[in-house]
Design goal:
It comes from Azospirillum argentinense. This protein is mainly alpha-helical and 706 residues long. The protein contains 34 helices and nine strands.
Length: 706
């Protein structure tokens, strides 16, 4: 009688020779004699599977594994049958067992990766993202070049909020397939959320190079450039996005937003209107239109657009908040409060809306409620500049000057380009040194011209432009200018009436300044409240330069300090050379760019020996730069006496306005000083294209350069 081994050998010979019936009979007899025999169970299972009876084969393969769990082959073949029966999870488990027993088993590894990927996709589709992510990682451990696993793993990680993992896997997918734009966009999105803006931009560059007509990539670049303060580049990217997909109104919304941030409200207005011509029922586009109209101070039209946005999307927090903030600025306090409260009910985490509600409360005289709103805003967004300014204004009104100053200083540090904190700090400190400015004149009854944003839009040099332009315009047209409290009242003794009842707002580009300067008044019986920065061409104002200069004559203690500083400088030499190097709040974006000190040194090297006993004055907010100019023994403001508290910059501006040779920076501060200089022999400014200083006429050209 044959042994089990001999019988199994004979059966296997039949099996190999294709005598399936004989092999099956012998396998069956062996299993009757020795139930669960691992070898016979395994071979019977294989035979049944090979003859199309997979369901019947599986119990035999299970028995083989149970009888000899250390056999990689048994696990491998059981996995094959499980896979054929659609039992993917079981198959994957069998192949994992094979690899645990024999890590270099190529077939098991090859079969396991697609099975795990299928399980991952099933988990992903069912919402089990954590399981899916773990399975995708297992696939990549087996097959690092598996593109679908890398990309889908990135999507699972993104859904779980694992941004570092999402960025890594999306980057891997992009490297595996450089043409996969979705992978590059996913990596950029994750890196932007992580605050890795430069790396996000780097992820998108190959995508736009590969497909310049891909609007989505350009749209993402638009957002990223805005994050870096690269306003011009953001607008370019937004424009490319809109060109790539001219019928995509979402891209037009994004372009309008970029143009708003870049302080280009008119192009934003055009983008919103173009979008509305394609989709008149878009709430987002009406919102963008309202914001752009608000920026050009067409407040009534802005209100209509925002009201339309609200009707199209009732209860939308963004529309309610934007409309509420507009009403607050327009002095419609009750309407503003109603809209803002509705906006905050829908989205209580909006710090800007809390600030606007607080400002409305302050307008009503409710300082306690305004203070609570400021606290809410700062709790939501610590360091929010508008929240700090509101809190400072409340504390100043309550007589807590020290606390108010600390809040203003924090606001200036957080947003150095915003004029409000700068102006409030200056006026508060100036009062302590020079006392109150002259009392505002009573209105004369003339037609009114107002500049209610003076002191808020722009800092010192820009405020001089706003006031000077509009004061001359008012005088040329028999009108009376109204201004809020601002630095000029204390420095120059200006006593204009305070703003009366709100006037219709008008942007400088719409009011026709050259015509006003020629005495052709605006067609409006009650006048306008003009808003703008007045940094364009100074040529129209040139015929009135004497009046412009006369407006800004220091008075009282300010005049005494100014004279002492200039006298102290003149005793050091005969020819006064003044250079302005602005740093502090410059260089943060591509509009307010910084010229290298080398350009100024090159100019000095060429002119210094030609001057009669020259003395160099360095006007700067970065006194450490004096070391670069050591050979010229520069004088700084601190060398000429203690600065005026609140207007520590005034000595710099005054000396620039009295020097013989002036080299300005790309800043309205030094350009206005050059405009006020009555005996200027030479004026130079930085030219980015030529990479050097070039002569210029401060009364015939733009205040700021591109």
């Amino acid at each position: 009688m044959a042994t089990v081994s001999e019988a199994l050998s004979i059966a296997l010979d039949h099996h190999i020779a294709g005598r399936v019936a004989e092999a099956e009979t012998l396998y069956g007899r062996i299993l009757e004699a020795v139930p669960g025999h691992p070898g016979a169970s395994h071979l019977m299972g294989l035979l049944l599977a090979q003859t199309g009876r997979a369901a019947a084969a599986l119990p035999h393969l299970n028995a083989a594994v149970a009888g000899d769990p250390a056999s990689p082959t048994y696990h491998l073949n059981r996995g094959k049958v499980q896979d054929a029966l659609g039992r993917t999870a079981g198959a994957a488990a069998s192949w994992l067992a094979t690899l645990r027993l024999q890590p270099d088993h190529a077939e098991a590894a090859e079969r396991l990766a697609p099975a795990l990927r299928l399980l991952a996709e099933t988990a992903f589709d069912s919402g089990a993202l954590a399981s899916a992510a773990a399975l995708y990682e297992r696939v990549l451990a087996l097959d690092p070049q598996n593109l679908p696993a890398a990309f889908d793993g990135a999507m699972a990680a993104k859904g779980l909020g694992r941004l570092h993992e999402a960025a890594r896997l999306a980057g891997l997918a992009a490297r595996l397939d450089p043409t996969l734009l979705r992978a590059r966009m996913a990596e950029a999105e994750a890196r932007r959320a992580l605050g890795q803006t430069e790396r996000a931009i780097a992820a998108l560059r190959p995508a736009v190079a590969l497909d310049p007509a891909q609007g989505g990539c350009w749209a993402s670049l638009c957002l990223l450039r805005n994050d870096l303060g690269q306003r011009g580049a953001a607008v370019v990217a937004g424009r490319r996005a809109a060109l790539a997909a001219p019928a995509d109104t979402g891209l037009l919304v994004r372009l309008a937003a970029a143009q708003q941030i870049a302080e280009k409200p008119r192009p934003a207005l055009a983008a919103a209107r173009r979008g509305l011509s394609l989709d008149p029922a878009s709430a987002e586009l009406h919102l963008a239109l309202g914001a752009a109209l608000d920026a050009v101070h067409a407040l009534e039209a802005a209100g209509w657009a925002l009201d339309r946005a609200g009707r199209l999307r009732p209860g939308d927090a963004a529309s309610l908040a934007e409309h509420g903030r507009l009403c607050e600025r327009a002095g419609l306090v009750e309407r503003a409060a109603t809209l803002l409260q509705r906006a905050l009910a829908a989205r209580p985490d909006n710090g800007d809306s809390w600030v606007a509600l607080g400002r409305a409360a302050l307008r009503r005289g409710d300082a306690a409620w305004a203070s609570r709103c400021a606290r809410w805003a700062l709790r939501l967004v610590p360091g929010l500049p508008s929240g700090l300014l509101l809190a400072g204004e409340v504390r100043e009104g309550q007589g807590a000057d020290r606390e108010a100053l600390a809040l203003y200083d924090r606001a200036i540090a957080a947003a150095p380009g915003v004029g409000t904190g700068f102006s409030r700090r200056a006026v508060l400190l100036l009062r302590r040194v020079v006392g109150d400015g002259p009392p505002p004149r009573q209105p004369s009854g003339k037609r009114r011209l107002s500049v209610s944003t003076l002191g808020h839009a722009g800092r010192f040099g820009n405020q001089l432009l706003q006031y000077g332009y509009l004061r001359v315009c008012a005088e040329r047209n028999g009108m009376e200018l109204e201004t809020p409290d601002w630095i000029g009242r204390h420095l120059y003794g200006l006593d204009d009436p305070l703003p009366g009842q709100p006037l219709p707002s008008l942007h400088e580009e719409d009011c026709g300044v050259p015509a006003l300067l020629d005495g052709r008044a605006l067609v409006n019986a009650d006048g306008h409240d003009v808003v703008g920065y007045f940094c364009g061409d100074t040529a129209p104002l040139a015929p009135h330069r004497a009046r412009f200069r006369a407006l800004f004559t220091p008075v009282g203690a300010v005049a005494e300090r100014a004279a002492a500083a200039l006298d102290g400088l003149r005793t050091r030499g005969r020819t006064l050379v003044a250079i302005h190097l602005r740093r502090g709040d410059f260089g943060l974006n591509d509009r307010f760019w910084i010229a290298p000190e080398g350009w100024y040194l090159d100019w000095l090297a060429g002119v210094w020996t030609t001057l009669d006993r020259p003395v160099l004055y360095l006007a700067t907010d970065a006194p450490e730069l004096a070391d670069r100019f050591a050979r010229y023994r520069p004088v700084l403001a601190g060398d000429l006496g203690a600065p005026l508290p609140g207007v520590e910059f005034f000595t710099d501006h005054w000396i620039l306005s009295r020097a013989d040779h002036v080299a300005v920076s790309n800043s309205s501060f030094s350009v206005t000083a050059a405009m006020l200089n009555p005996a200027l022999r030479a004026a130079l400014r930085p030219d980015r294209e030529r990479a050097r200083l070039v002569p210029f006429d401060p009364w015939n050209g733009p205040v700021l350069l591109p």
